[in-house]
Amino acid sequence: MADDSPASYIHLVQHLIEKCLIFHMSKEECMEALSKHGNIKPVITSTVWNELEKENKVFFEQYSQSQGKVDRMSEAETNEMIQKMVSDSSKDSSD
Predict the structure, then answer these.
(1) Computed over its alpha carbons, how large is the radius of gyration of the chain?
(2) Which residues of 42-54 are buried (b: 16+ CB within 10 A; e: fewer)?
(3) Does residue 40 sit in helix, strand or coil?
């Protein structure tokens, strides 16, 4: 039986945000992607992202500085990757 607690939901959102970071997505792109493909409200993604920023200041400072320097995937590639990671995360949480 899947754990439907608020803590497990927040952990799932955190996991998906970490995947967004791997794909060099901005906070806004991540919020949009998780809303569109994971049915996660943007305010939830934003809140979890902000908490991660507080806990990992140095990382996020460097991440935001590197944002403009990274080759980005096309929107179609990004959408495909987000759909896959949301699908994979859903499968993992139901095990």
Answers:
(1) 13
(2) eeebeebbeebee
(3) coil
22's CB contacts (< 8 A; 6+ apart) are none
Say how far apart CA 79 and CA 7 lie, in whole Å: 26
Start-to-end CA distance of the chain, whole Å, equals 7
Note whether 10 and 18 are within 8 A (CB): no
The DSSP letter of residue 68 is: G
Per-residue model confidence as pLDDT tens for the chain (95 residues):
356 788 999 999 999 999 999 988 999 999 999 999 999 999 999 999 999 999 999 999 888 887 766 556 666 776 776 777 677 776 665 55
Q: For the whole model, what pTM was predicted?
A: 0.70
